[in-house]
Amino acid sequence: MERAGNIMGGRVLSSILPVSLGVLGALVANFPVSFLGNLLPPPLLSFMPLYFWGIVRPDLMSPFWAFMLGLLEDFLSGGPPGVWAASYVAAYAFLDNQRDMLAGLSGIGALTGFALSALVACASAYLIVMLYHWRLEPIAPVMAELVTTVLFYVFAVFLLGGIHRRLVGPLRSDF
Amino acid sequence: MANGGWKIARSRGGAQLPIALLAALAIALILIGKAQSNLFDRARANVTDWAAPALEVVHAPLASLNRWIGSIGDVFKVYQENLRLKDENARLRQWQNAAVVLDNRVKRYQLLLHAVPDPALSSVMARVIGRANRPFLETMILDAGKAQGVKPGQGVIDARGMIGRIFLAGDHTSWVILLTDLNSRIPVTIQPGNVQAIMAGDNSSAPTLDLLSQNVRLHPGDQVVSSGDGGLLPPGLAIGTVVETGSGGYRVVLLADPASSEDVNIVDFKLKAETPPGVTPSDLPATAAGLPPAAPPPQVAVPAPTIPVAGAPAVTAPTPAAPKPQAGAAKPQAATPLPAAAKPVVTAPPQTAPADAGGNE
After folding, report:
1. What domains can you pick out in chain A, each with its CATH number?
2. Which residues of A108-134 are buried (b: 16+ CB within 10 A; e: fewer)?
3. Domains plus CATH for chain B?
4. Chain segment B34-61, per-residue pLDDT in tens
5. Cβ atoms of B189 and B196 closer than 8 Å
6. Is the Cβ pair B3, A106 closer than 8 Å?
7. ipTM > 0.85?
8. What global pTM score does this model have?
9. Which of A9, A28, B25, B99 is the most buried (most CB within 10 A)?
C-alpha cells in the first residue's frame, strides 16, 4: 500500500516536473532584475524544458503546456498577450514534425536542433509583433535573445538531462 | 549534450489537431489583446503590486553588484577621469552663472509682457525596483503607483533628463516604457530652430528622429526637448542631443541613462481643462453697438415628412404647436454655460497598452 502511494506520488511528481521547470524558467527569465547587467536580454528559459521534454517525453510536455508556457511568458514579459503563446505553439509544431530527426541528434547536432526550434519560436514572435504593430521591427534584439537562449541551453541541457535521468525517467519507467 | 541517448516515449505526439486549435486560440488572444489590452494589464499590475516587496529585496544587492562590476574598469582610469571632471566642473560653473543671469532676464521679460505663467508641475519621487530588457519591450518598474497619484502617460525623468513614460500603473507600482523601447513615440522639439519631430525608439540606445518637415537640416549637438504636444508631457523636458547617422538620418543620444538610474521623478503635468466664460448680454454685437436687440423671428410650423406606406394612407406625424412669441421672449437671455456633457474638456488620451503606450500623443 505504501509502495503504491510512493509510485502514485512519483508519477505525479514526474508529470508536473517538466512543466514546473518551464514555469520556473519563465519566472526567472522575466524577473525584472537583470542578472547580466542589461548587457544581454534574458534567455527563453521556459523554452528549454519545452524543447527537451517535447522531444523525449511528449506525453509530459503536450502542446497545451507549450501554449500555457508561452502565455505565461507573455504575461510576465509585459508584451502583447498571445505573441509568445503562438510562437511556442509554432515551435512545438516544428519539433512535433521533426521529432524523429531531432531526437537522433547528439553533440553539436543537438544544439543545432535546439537552435532551429528556438529560431522558429523567435521568428514567429518577430513576425507576429511586426504584424501587430504593422511596421518593420529591428531584428537585432530578437537575434540577441536567440543567441543568449542557445548559449544557455549548452549548460541547461546537462541540468535537464540530469533531472530526467534521476527523477522523471525512473519514476515513469513503465511508460 | 545530446538528445540521442533518450528513448522517445511516443514516436509522434499525434498532436496536429490540438496544435492547430491552440494556434487559433493564440491568434484569437492576440486579436483580443489588441482590442482590449486592459484585461491583461490589470492582471500584470496586480502581480507587480504583489511582488513589489520581493523585487525591492532582490533588486538592492543585485544593483550594487552590477554597479561594482561596472566600476571595475573605472579603477584603471581614475586619474584621467578626475582631470576630466575638474575641467567639466569649471565649464559648468561658467554655464551656471550664464543660466542664472538668463533666467532672471526671462522672468523680468515675462513680468513686463504679462506672459501666461507656465502650468504647474508636480512630481512624485520613486525608486526603480526592477528592469526588464526583452526583445519587444524595454521597461522599468517603479515603487510608486496610483496610491501616490501616478497615472499612465506621465513622464519619468532623472537628474539628467527624460527616461520614459508611465504605461501601466498599479496601486503601489508602475511600469515605465523607456524612450529606447520600440513602442515609444514622443513629440519633440529640436533647438535651435524649433524643429518639430517624433522621436521613436527602436530598442537601440539612441532613438531615431522622424522629422515632420522634410526641408529641415539638423546639426549634431542640437538639443532635443519634449514639445508638449498632446498635453501629456510638459514642454521643455531635456531629452538628449542630435547625432547624424551615416545614412543621412538623425538619432538622439539620450542625456539620461535608464540602466543606471535608481531614483526618478514622475512628472505630473497639470494642464487644467479650460472652461470658456459664459456670454453676457453686453457681449452680443448688437448690444455692444448700442442697438436694441432684435426680436427672434416667429417660428413657422414645418410639416413633418410623410412616409408613404404601401396599401395604407399617408400618415403625417403630429407636430408640436409652434411657440408664440411672447413679450418677454424678445429680451435676449444671457447665454448659459454649456451643459457638462457639451463642455469642451481637455482630457488625457485613454490608457494604452505597452504596444501603443508610446503611440501618438
Report:
1. 2-171 (1.10.1760)
2. ebbbebbbbbbbbbbbbbbebbeebbe
3. 63-71+118-273 (2.40.10.340)
4. 777 677 777 777 777 787 777 777 777 7
5. yes
6. yes
7. no
8. 0.65
9. B25
